[in-house]
Amino acid sequence: MSDRINVSEIFGxxxxxxxxxxxxxxKKIYQKLHQVIEEGIELDIETADVIAHEMKExxxxxxxxxxTHWFQPLTGVTAEKHDSFITAPMANGKxxxxxxxxxxxxxxxxxxxxxxxxxxATFEARGYTAWDCTSPAFVRQDAGGATLCIPTAFCSYTGxxxxxxxxxxxxxxxxxxxxxxxxxxLGNTTSKKVTPSVGPEQEYFIVDREKYLKRKDxxxxxxxxxxxxxxxxxxxxxxxxxxxxxxIAAYMKDVDVELWKLGVTAKTEHNEAAxxxxxxAPIYAxxxxxxxxxxxxxxxxxxxxxxxxxxxxxxxxxxxxxxxxGKHNNWSLITDDGINLLSPGSKPHENIQxxxxxxxxxKAVDKHAGLLRASAADVGNDHRLGANEAPPAIISVYLGxxxxxxxxxxxxxxxxxxxxxxxxxxxxxxxLPDFRKDAADRNRTSPFAFTGNKFEFRMVGxxxxxxxxxxxxxxxxxxxxxxxxxxxxxxxDVEIAALDLISEYAREHQRIIFNGNGYSEEWIEEALRxxxxxxxxxxxxxxAYIAPESVAAFERFHVFSRSELESRVEIEYEIxxxxxxxxxxxxxxxxxxxxxxxxxxxxxVLAESxxxxxxxxxxxxxxxxxxxxxxxxxxxADTKAALKKLQQVTEIAAxxxxxxxxxxxxxxxxxxxxxxxxTPVDKLEMIVDKSMWPxxxxxxxxxEV
Length: 705
Ligand code: ADP
Ligand code: MG
Hints:
47% of the residues lie in helices and 14% in strands. The protein is built from 22 helices and 20 strands.
């Protein structure tokens, strides 16, 4: 028996991808579907029937008994409702396995169980899922059997988006249309379609499952609510790119195989900055497929961990004081004939198309910085952004020396005459190859960095969908392109007009460019002087969705209506309140039932020891017991007082009317009370006998996997 894996054989074996469709569908039907995918024409029911039938046959061969419309409601995770292929029994006692075009293209989950932010009253519970034929169907195999999963969009009866995918697809149409407009006016006559390409790098933590189960905070909230720092943190940096431990390596191999079967191009894996932290990056794909694949990556990471006695933590900040997890959303625009609009070429200063695209992105990001920040707003991410490790909560763009220099030339002279040359890297070792360095060094502290031929938006939280960020990016860049086209299409000399626009955008939006250390205090002050928004937390950030310039951009390109935006903001406030409420209640529970009793036991041991020593040997010193007892008792009293306060504010918060004010109360009062409870408890953890502490420590969790 060999466990050698033949990647090319298993890759995509559970996906009804283009190759599977080409092999199975009648030629005409296959061509029709391609037209639907590429030209966006409507799918007729006859074609859908044939596709559905073939898809079902294929899925049954893979062992599938059920099908599901797989969708992404606003809960942040995917949802599905399973139906079996079985239809009415036949006269001969057998059952018929069927799947119609109607079932393929439309589903009707009970919409009232998903957040809608008041878009749909519960008495109008009807919601529809509609097949997204641009993202391939797949068969998922797990303990429950095999299921045909059909990626779908989820809308209300009146067509309002109740999910992540619908606005994403709308934004992709917007950026496609405006990019083609821009290419045409600049003289491109061949490209037919422009698609945003996305490669989301996923960070995560892996801990031992048995230890995990002993931490009620991790189980209920995904992060530790208490925990003192271990003696060794990440200061040695010995794990970053370190050899991946056997157990983790076996897990990662399993994850890869599962993902490859699902057609996800899991490619690089390495240890991350924190101990027990890892990263998985796929090869980039078209935006909506990448978003779907990232959901599969997260599901798979969690599912496979269980098989190895491990637990995957996707929370942005599972351990306070230890580096958190994010997601880097790599984004570029690529034409159907292979032109990357963000590729600078060998002489960037002469590449007008590239420079115009680049400055349009600058303009978009500057104009909508708050909105882009809001797209990464998440309760867990509040512990990360601006917390001295991840990008700050302030949006800025890193371009690198070469591009910054070119834009500086434009700002002063209206054109550029040269590009700073890329140097050769010389290691001084003869046997190591010398190679040309990248045009720019990396700046890990930048939230929005140009990295060669793509932008990397690094603010997204590790457990969040990347859909929102891409909806925003696609829309705001579409808007900037549209504005540029409005000028260029009327210009007598397009080239001169384009050079003028590059200069104008570079000049007007240079405040968003920042190549320095984004983690420094000085940057926060500097950003304030530049007038850049700094939303430190989710409840402050999410209002940007309904700022006038946001509503205008979304409505102009039919990505969101105002009521859809308002509903989303409402949902975000609700999610915030609910999450903090669960955390507060978990803390109250753990402190009351586990921590206080343990500390009392320890205090009793100290008191008993004090008395026993005094009795046995009156002249022996007992000041250690006395001091520890005094210290422990004081912290215990502080804990009890903080617990009481947390209980009070949590009760008040829970009774408030849902919405912005409630969310703010949770942030200002409840979160603060949680921190005040944590402080004495973490001190106690450093004093109390380890064998009496009721849960595994940070050290146990992150160094012993
Ligand atoms: P990094 O630059 O962060 O070290 P890579 O070059 O490996 O990493 O790329 C990180 C991610 O960016 C990968 O998922 C990769 O597929 C993706 N990526 C590379 N080129 C592009 C592109 N043109 N557009 C979008 N994503 C891309
Ligand atoms: Mg990266």
